[in-house]
Amino acid sequence: MSSLAIKHGAINLGGGFTNFDGPEFVKEAAIQAIRDAKNQYALVCGVPEFNSAIAARFKKDTGLVLDPDKEVTVTSGCTEAIAATMLGLINPGDEVILFAPFYDSYEATLSVAGAKIKCITLRPPDFAVPIDELKSTISKNTRAILINTPHNPTGKMFTREKLSTIASFCIDNDVLFFTDEVYDKLAFEMDHISMASLPGMYEQTVTMNSLGKTFSLTGWKIGWAIAPPHLT
Ligand SMILES: Cc1ncc(COP(=O)(O)O)c(C=O)c1O
Question: Which of 3.40.50.2020, 2.40.70.10, 3.30.390.10, 3.40.640.10 is the CATH number of 2-226?
Answer without folding.
Answer: 3.40.640.10
